[in-house]
Amino acid sequence: MTLQAFHGAGVGCEEVGFTGEEEGAAAGFGVGDRQLELTNDADGATVLAGKEIGLLTFLPVQVNGADAKQEREGSDDDIEHLVERTKARRPGAHSLIMARMADGVHDFSFLPATLRAAAMGENSIALSLLAVDDDPLSLDLVRDALGSMGLRILTALNGAEARSELAASRPQIVLLDLMLPDVGGLELLEEIMQTAPGTDVILLTGHYTPESAVEAIRKGACDYLTKPVKIGALRARVKELVDDGRRRMNAGRLEAELLHANRFQGMVGRSPLMLELFALIRRVASHFRVALVRGATGTGKELAAQALHALSPVAAGPFVIANCSAITGTLFESEMFGHLKGSFTGAAADKKGLFEAAHGGTLFLDELGDLPFEMQSKLLRAIQQQEIKPVGAAATKKINVRVVAATNRPLEEMMRAGTFREDLYYRLSMVEIHVPGLAERMEDFPFLVRHFVTQFAEEYGKNLTGVTPRAQAMLSRHTWPGNVRELENVIGSACMMADGELVDVRDMPPSFQRGAVPVLATAPANNAAPLELLSLEILSQRHARAVVAHFGGNKSKAAEVLGVTRSTLYRLLGEG
User: How far is CA 205 from CA 129, 226, 231, 468, in A?
Assistant: First the structure.
């Protein structure tokens, strides 16, 4: 039998030949500075033992499938039952039993959570499944049917036991009987969706009705199966959820790594437009004296200005913000250039203007398009001459200021209309930077969502790890007229309301929930034909078909918008 021990993240792989078959046969070897021992026990199972095995420095041993099958007689199921019995006799974090069959089945569910998370590869991510049924035989059936899928199987005979297991183990998948002795299945489903909205729940019932199926899906169940459950169908459905769960966990970790890699001076993006923006800022930051940043409201123009400042030679100097839309014409000179005591009524003391405050750094002129026309010539002179004259002063002051202006206004149209000076525009647009809207960079959307969830989780002191699939679907189908700022506000509000690890639809602001759901039909007018009364099954089918048609037959997109899996969508369409 050939075993491989991995030190660290697969570095320093050491193969160990181990052919002993009798009880007590052993082979010792070292991994890093740790001495480990492989032995055979009375049942013939291979056991890896070692004290204080490092959770982050030692990854699970893999038994070569071909060698394992040559050495041992019996089916894969026999080997799996043997491993299960041995695990029961040898509990604890420091006795590790590994089995890997030729078909790739392996079970790491008994390992500590930290070690499970460190296991290599998608299939090594251990998920847990809770089966809730008042019939012990049904629970035995679930164990037998799903025991070889690499899942940690938990069981509960009633609602009270289920609530206890849900709180203690936080399973990723729940098989839930609709009829329990102490609580209704739909009621328990609602509780699960309230406390752990990311959980995949399959409802099981011996009394199928279209109404109960639609109600279950509406309340958050991912599927609805009728008893007696066909083993093949159950395994296939659970395998879909397991594969999807592992992909989500892997994607979450990869997303976190990519988020770190795709941050640039406070901005987040990996789309071509954002990478082009980052490259332009890098190129001009060392050399610019003036720059014009353009883009719609909420796109992040101020962040682009801050990036220019941070990468410039004056990064150690001040970054001063002037909101041009908030400065009235009568106070413009005082705000921008300062004033002397007694220069006008109310001037009780000398005051530095924003230009002087930004000396040796950068002045950011936000909402430049809102600046009154008569003030624009004075602003142009200060930028060109790098000098200011405070109100009431007899002489000018020299300054050294870089200027970044930003606007969402159509300056070309304003110049044609005579409301914006051409010379000021051409002076500022020596370097012109466009910040794209969110609709132009939807490739960045998942990273922005994770970025804001991480940001607000830290701000609110919560253990938030992401959003549920149905919340992601709701966010994805919104048009985001307010761009990144609107997304930030929605995620910030949702994170404040969330009380679990995942942000769910119910956590979204009510106004957003109302606006995010497209209206596909309206009630009839007073003189129109009366509303057709339909069963929920037919209504759900029509709605599903309407959504599929809306997306040109793209069922993947339709399933995402409906918040269901593809297999559930097929059933709603009457095709499954």
Answer: 18, 5, 15, 25
Contact 340, 397 (CB under 8 A): no
The residue type found at 60 is: P
Return the CATH number at 359.
3.40.50.300
Distance between CA atoms of residues 320 and 340, nearest Å: 21
Same domain as 282, residue 418? yes
Q: What residues pair up with 407 in beta bridges, in sequence order? A: 294
Task: Examine the domain organization and report whether 233 and 284 are in the same domain.
Answer: no
Helix (H, G, I), strand (E, B) or coil at 35: strand
Q: Is residue 267 part of a domain?
A: no
The amino acid sitting at 189 is: L
At 536, is the pLDDT very low, low, confident or very high (cuts 50, 70, 90)?
A: low
Measured distance CA(324)–CA(371) in Å, rounded:
6
Listed in sequence order, the residues at least 6 apart from 542 whose beta carbon sits closer than 8 Å to its beta carbon are 534
Mean pLDDT of 408-435: 95
Asked, for residue 266, whether it belongs to a domain, the answer is no
Strand partners, 154: 130
Assign 3-class secondary structure to 482-510. Answer: CHHHHHHHHHHHHHHHCCCCEECHHHCCH
pTM for the predicted model, two decimal places? 0.57
* CATH of residue 495: 1.10.8.60
Region 81-109 average pLDDT: 35
Say if residue 28 is exposed, middle or buried (CB neighbours under 10 Å; 0-12, 13-18, 19+). Answer: exposed
- Which stretch of 32-36, 250-254, 361-365, 432-436 has the lowest confidence by average pLDDT? 32-36
Confidence of residue 419 (pLDDT cuts 50, 70, 90): very high
Residue 368 to residue 434: CA distance in whole angstroms: 15
Q: How far apart are CA 125 and CA 47, in angstroms?
A: 21
Q: Which domain holds residue 332?
A: 272-435
When pLDDT is averaged across residues 292-309 and rounded to a whole number, the result is 96
Mean pLDDT check: name the lowest of 76-80, 355-359, 442-446, 460-464: 76-80
